Amino acid sequence: MHSNKENILRLLLSGQEETIILGLQLTQSLTINVSDFLDDIDILCEWWLGNCQRYGVYDKLVKISLVKEIIRPNAQISCIPSQIKYMSNLKELVLYKNQLHSLPCEIGDLYNLSWLDISENQLSHIPETIGKLANLEELNLSTNRLQTLPDTMINLNNLQSLDLKNNPLPDSEKNRIQTLLPDCKINF
Which ranges form a coiled coil (predicted)? Predict the structure, then answer.
């Protein structure tokens, strides 16, 4: 048996009966864990963009801001939609072993994000906006194609762990990163 929270999310993801969704009174106190039944982040964002724009109900659906975590390893995800910025309560984003080539600048709008694992992708660039993730504690960028990180990383005051193993970082960049983040445990 599913809880009401799960049923609401299942209804949101099903794309069925949009008029029922319009009548829901969702609040910030509702917590939804989508990792168990979210088939793909793209499905959520496509539904959400298509239907929300069509019905003009961004505010009534609280912009999908109730999602707390997305854990989708090895799911063949090739991009993160810019609409992820509406997931303002997202705390954990785990997308390792996917097909990501880039991150949207909007990743910096996830102010509550504390854990970001985008290891084992094909990332060659990290957007400057990553420096806006003030609550980020763990960042795994291992096994990508990174040769440099943005200077804005200096703003990640709560970052405790940064994994950069298996990236083609030159020694000069490794030294620069250690200078930017002196209190962070960094694995090269």
Answer: none
